[in-house]
């Protein structure tokens, strides 16, 4: 009888220990999941902030180009180009499995921005207008696929 009680107590201790361990494991993975979710949300907020900045500067660039305010247009395009470098770390909302294609679109966007910057620098209104439309197409195509 005494050995049965010892076995029962031992079994209860093991079961209690397993339950505590499972609870701690559950809390740990739950907090890891919460941290992961929080990081994902921060990434999305950062992406949205970057895109908000790009959109704001793009509106400034378009207006400056329209008014042939070359210095303002150049500054706005420089700001966009700098902000767009941060897009390399983006995680697309849709079609995330096509990240390589996303990076190709990103590269084309950067190239078009730099070409636009050179046209603005040379004050070539016709080329700047064409290139501004090409930059806008890059934005629209990328958004259609990934946003």
Question: Can you describe this structure?
Answer:
By secondary structure, the chain is mainly alpha-helical. The radius of gyration is 27 Å and the shape is elongated. The longest helix has 65 residues, at 2-66. Helix 1 runs antiparallel to helix 2 (70-85), helix 2 (70-85) runs antiparallel to helix 3 and helix 3 (99-121) runs antiparallel to helix 4 (125-146). It has helices at 2-66, 70-85, 99-121, 125-146. Helices cover 86% and strands 0% of the residues.
End-to-end separation: 70 Å
Order of helices and strands: HHHH
- Give the biggest beta sheet: none
Number of helices: 4
Number of strands: 0
Helix content: over 70%
Strand and helix layout:
Blueprint: H1 2-66, H2 70-85, H3 99-121, H4 125-146
Q: Briefly, what is this?
A:
This protein has 147 residues and is mostly helical. 86% of the residues lie in helices and 0% in strands. It is elongated and about 95 Å long.
Provide the descriptors you would attach to this structure in a database record.
elongated, 147 residues, mainly alpha, 4 helices
């Amino acid at each position: 009888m005494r050995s049965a009680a010892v076995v029962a107590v031992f079994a209860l201790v093991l079961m209690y220990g397993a339950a505590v361990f499972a609870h701690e494991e559950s809390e740990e993975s739950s907090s890891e999941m919460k941290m992961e979710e929080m990081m994902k949300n921060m990434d999305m907020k950062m992406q949205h902030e970057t895109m908000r900045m790009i959109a704001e500067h793009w509106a400034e660039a378009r207006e400056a180009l329209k008014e042939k305010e070359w210095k303002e247009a150049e500054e706005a395009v420089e700001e966009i180009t700098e902000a767009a470098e941060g897009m390399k770390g983006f995680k697309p909302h849709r079609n995330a499995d096509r990240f390589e294609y996303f990076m190709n679109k990103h590269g084309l966007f950067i190239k078009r921005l730099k070409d636009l910057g050179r046209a603005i620098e040379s004050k070539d209104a016709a080329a700047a207008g064409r290139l501004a439309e090409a930059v806008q197409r890059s934005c629209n195509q990328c958004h259609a696929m990934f946003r």
